[in-house]
Structures are given as C-alpha cells and as structure tokens.
C-alpha cells in the first residue's frame, strides 16, 4: 500500500480526534504537526494519544497540548543507509525529512527496506540546443554538460532509478549521437533506455507523438532533461493515480516583491494602498504525469508545447502537484554555476 506523507500533516489546533483519524487512515503511525508554511512543530503518535486518553484528556483537546516537540528529523538528502541506522538507534519506524525546518518528506522503515518497482515509462527531454548556455553547448548537448562529476541527464536518470523506475525513453534532436553513445541501452545502470528522434523540434508535447504505440497502459512521467530536483517522484505518481487525473503538472511557488507601493483606485478615488506587496504564483516546473488518453491524441510530428497541449483538456482533470523540495532549471550560465555549488550538498551526484 502506498502512503502519501502530505496526508499526515495537521495544524496545531487540530483536535486529538482529528489526529486519530489521520493516523488511522494513513497507517503511518503518526501525524506531523506543522504551521502554515509546513514548518515542523512536533509529532503526534498513537502512543501519544493513548497516554492522553489514559490521563483522561478530552478528544476535543488541541494536539499542540500533547505533541512531542523535539522529534528526530533528518535533512532531505540523507542517504537511505544512514536513515536506517538512525531509525535503528532511535527505535523509530519513521523520520520526517526537512529542509530549513520545512517538512519535505517522510522516510519510513518499510519504505527504506522495500523498494517499489514501477513500470511506468519515463520520457526525458534532451533535444534542446541549449542556446543560453553557449559557448558550453557549441559542441556538447546541454544534457551532457557536467554538474559535479556527472552529466545533468545522468543525475536526472539516477533520481528516477533510485525511486524504482526502469523503463526510459529519451527524446533527442541536437547532437543526438553523443547522447546515445553515452547512455546506450541503459544496461550500465540495469535499466532499459530507448530513443525517439525529433527531425525538427516538436516541443515537449509534440515529442509525445513519437513514442511507440505499444507502450504499457500506464501514465507516463515526462521531465525536461535539464532540471535538477529532489521532488518525490513516487508521491507524484501516487497523487496522479489517486485522483485519476488526465494530467498532473508539478508546480513551484514563486514570489515576486513589487518594489513600489501599489495603489487600487476607483476612477480618481484611492481605495487602498499596499506598500511593496509580495505576490505569489505557481510556476511550471517542467515535470508532468500524462495519461495515455492524452498521449494517444497527439499527432505524429505535431508541433506543440506542453502547456498548449494541456490547455485542450482543462475541462477534464488536469491537476497541479505543488512541491517544496529543491528544484533548479539549468537554463542560463548563472543557473549552471549555481548547480555546481548545490550539487555538493544535495546528495544527488
């Protein structure tokens, strides 16, 4: 059974009864108490609730009164082996994973010991020219540029392999032979890699039309090959399947601080004034789960980007999957240089 850690997040003013329902429904033996920014405040286990009931605390009592306020946590990039040792020493069945105090995942003993295997095809886009990274891409496709000691696309591939995926397709266009020579058929990593070639750029959505027609009847995960991220790929797929979505787009929250006072008016009459407000948006992270229903309707050699393709299905179930884990789109030289620093602390290389 697959569990989504996001379902066990509760507010500090939740009641003991509400926490009990969450713990029972997700079968993860605890709930994580977080503030509005998902900063971890404490944990509530079935043992905490049992002790509260023995002390004759009412079910209407807020969990803030009974939660454990100093739980064991670990950084998101902690290797699985270290997490296993920590759980053994502390006699824990799960550990919240955090970044700067914000909950971004949950490692469980069961998950650490039993790796899931997924047959969903993974489609990695690697055909771009990398124009904004010139001169680095004059003789090397962007996916083969090294971040740390590995090409960008290899780091992306390994993140999927670690999550249990083994069936890969790579879309090529610019300098395709260099990509094929490096990755081969995937046997180096114990997985299957096949290629589709865009004779002319088709866009992310259009490339879907080049995939074989005999793929398994499963949703396909599509990702740009120049993105570094720690998004929970298993949770993403579980979310898509749980909601029976036609498509799911990963999104990140982007903040923009207006450097001036913003005035709202009605004609010449000032109605409100807000000094340097911060606006928040969800932005496309370049990671999708797409159902076969949509893929089968993409024409061969049709030129269409993914947002335009998904706009055709907005009357159906096109969902967003917000995530807070690390994400970096390596589109410019500044991004590439930042990635060289970030990769050292991410545990991805």
From TrEMBL:
Keyword terms: CBS domain
Keyword match Endoplasmic reticulum: no
Superkingdom, natural source: Bacteria
Protein name as it appears in the record: Nucleotidyltransferase family protein
InterPro entries in the cross-refs: CBS_dom, CBS_dom_sf, Mannose-1P_guanyltransferase, NTP_transferase_dom, Nucleotide-diphossugar_trans
Annotated Pfam families: CBS, NTP_transferase
Domain CBS, chain residue ranges per copy: 1-59, 67-122
SUPFAM superfamilies the UniProt entry points to: CBS-domain pair, Nucleotide-diphospho-sugar transferases
């Amino acid at each position: 059974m697959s569990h989504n850690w996001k379902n066990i997040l509760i507010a500090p003013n939740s009641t003991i009864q509400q926490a009990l329902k969450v713990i029972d429904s997700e079968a993860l033996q605890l709930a994580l108490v977080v503030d509005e920014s998902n900063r971890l405040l404490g944990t509530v286990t079935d043992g905490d609730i049992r002790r509260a009931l023995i002390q004759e605390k009412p079910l209407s009592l807020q969990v803030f009164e009974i939660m454990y306020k100093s739980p064991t946590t670990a950084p998101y990039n902690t290797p699985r082996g270290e997490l296993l040792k920590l759980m053994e020493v502390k006699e824990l069945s799960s550990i919240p994973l955090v970044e700067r105090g914000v909950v971004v995942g949950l490692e469980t003993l069961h998950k650490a010991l039993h790796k899931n295997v997924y047959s969903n095809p993974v489609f990695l886009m690697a055909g771009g020219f990398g124009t904004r990274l010139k001169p680095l891409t004059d003789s090397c496709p962007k996916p083969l540029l090294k971040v740390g000691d590995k090409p960008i696309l290899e780091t992306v591939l390994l993140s999927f392999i670690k999550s249990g995926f083994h069936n890969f397709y790579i879309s090529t266009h610019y300098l395709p032979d260099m990509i094929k020579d490096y990755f081969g058929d995937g046997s180096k990593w114990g997985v299957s890699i096949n290629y589709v070639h865009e004779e002319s750029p088709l866009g992310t959505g259009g490339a879907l039309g080049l995939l074989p027609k005999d793929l398994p009847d499963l949703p396909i995960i599509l990702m740009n090959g120049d993105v570094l991220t720690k998004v929970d790929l298993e949770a993403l797929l579980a979310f898509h399947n749980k909601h029976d979505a036609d498509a799911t787009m990963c999104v990140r929250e982007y903040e923009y601080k207006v450097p001036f006072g913003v005035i709202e008016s009605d004609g010449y009459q000032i109605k409100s004034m807000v000094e340097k407000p911060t606006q928040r948006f969800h932005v496309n992270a370049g990671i999708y789960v797409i159902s076969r229903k949509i893929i089968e309707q993409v024409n061969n050699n049709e030129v269409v980007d993914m947002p335009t393709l998904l706009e055709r299905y907005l009357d159906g179930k096109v969902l967003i999957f917000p995530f807070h884990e690390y994400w970096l789109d390596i589109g410019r030289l500044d991004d590439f240089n930042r990635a060289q620093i970030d990769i050292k602390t991410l545990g991805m290389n």
